[in-house]
Amino acid sequence: MGRFTDKNGNKILAGTVLYDGDTTSDFILNDEYDNYDYIEVIYRPHPSLGQCSDKMITSKSARMHLSSAQTINGVTTIYRCQMDFEGKNVRLTGTSQAIGGASAGNEVTIYRVIGY
After folding, report:
1. Looking at the domain assignment, is residue 97 inside a domain?
2. Single pTM value for the model
3. Cα separation values, 115 from 4, 20, 45, 65, 90, Å
4. Number of domains in the chain
5. Residue 2 lies in a domain
6. Which residues neighbour 108 within 8 Å (Cβ) at sequence distance 6 or greater?
7. How confident is the model at residue 1 (pLDDT cuts 50, 70, 90)?
């Protein structure tokens, strides 16, 4: 993790990529998550959605919740995923639930995890 300061002495955080891939299941980071002040996750809520999202937490929290909702032709689907961090290991659990309809397992795809 790199730390730099601007001309006023304020910290500028430089990120370290801890994971760079494409997964909907458990994965391993390149370093322990709690070696960083903040963790940022870049993810896609569902393969059919074109956009990616990101979320940042402090590394003092060992759990991150990702969620998104989408409505197409009057059907609303909620995509949820929970990430549990322990050392270098990340466990993913989640569901996709169509309101009033079927549900599926985790469909959230994790692309990158960055530590600051």
Report:
1. yes
2. 0.81
3. 15, 12, 21, 17, 14
4. 1
5. no
6. 24, 43, 44, 45, 46, 66, 79, 80, 81, 92, 94
7. very low
